[in-house]
Design a protein that fits this description.
Elements (H helix, E strand, L loop, with lengths): L1 H10 L1 E3 L3 E3 L1 H5 L4 H15 L6 E5 L2 H13 L3 E4 L11 E7 L6 E7 L8 E9 L3 H12 L3 E11 L4 H7 L4 E10 L6 E3 L1
Parallel strand pairs: 3-4, 3-7, 7-8, 8-9
Antiparallel strand pairs: 1-2, 5-6, 9-10
Helix pairs in contact: 3-4
The protein binds guanosine-5'-monophosphate (5GP).
Length: 191
């Protein structure tokens, strides 16, 4: 998506450890009008898939998932990163290694929000090694629901997550695919 590539080139900052920061429109400050354009694009890509639920992971996925859901007219469920006391009843869980924090979290969704027969579109901000996406896919499958695909805002295609998840037969649509980024020169190229 050209608009997104231009925005990443204009506002993206490169940090240590192959981290791309897009805090001014996606990860800290949210440019709502811009994320709505991304949401419309996800709807265009997945509109004929019978999506009845969108699943994401807290915290950074929630904004873009909600702004996408308004075009599908479906609810958003977000996986919580720890089993908090305000989740009642049975839960689905998965273990996910965090790319940006290096820690491992148990992600949790209450059983009642993922049901057999649900057709789930997973939305997330970044795809790097694929751990977050793998965890979310596990939650959906444990519930007996179906993953219709994953909509990713930014895939760092030089990292293994995209190939890994696609090789498992899951449709992954990324709105921007970064081919390379150089923290020293600030250069970012796209596929
Ligand atoms: P993965 O699990 O695919 O290795 O990483 C995906 C998760 O890590 C995303 O949910 C995102 O929050 C975070 N992440 C991975 N790479 C980046 C990055 O370059 N920038 C930012 N802001 N987050 C990232």
């Amino acid at each position: 998506m050209k608009l997104l590539e231009e925005r990443i080139r204009k506002d993206g900052q490169l940090g240590a450890g192959n981290v791309l920061k897009v805090d001014c429109f996606l990860n800290h400050q949210i440019d709502v009008d811009f994320l709505c354009e991304l949401g419309k694009e996800f709807e265009r890509l997945f509109h004929d898939c019978g999506v009845n639920k969108i699943l994401t992971i807290e915290a950074s996925g929630i904004g873009v998932a909600c702004l996408t859901a308004q075009y599908f007219h479906v609810p958003v469920v977000f996986a919580k990163k720890s089993k908090t006391t305000n989740i009642f009843g049975d839960v689905y869980t998965a273990s996910v290694e965090s790319y940006t924090h290096g820690t491992t979290n148990t992600i949790v969704v209450a059983n009642r929000f993922l049901q057999p027969g649900d057709r789930v579109l997973i939305i997330d901000d970044f795809l790097a090694n694929g751990k977050a996406l793998e965890g979310l896919i596990k939650l959906v499958r444990d519930a007996g629901a179906e993953v219709v695909g994953a909509g990713i805002v930014i895939e760092k295609a030089f990292q293994p997550g995209g190939d890994l998840i696609r090789s498992q037969g899951v449709r992954v649509e990324s709105l921007a695919r970064v081919a390379s980024m150089n923290a020293e020169t600030g250069e970012i190229s796209f596929i």
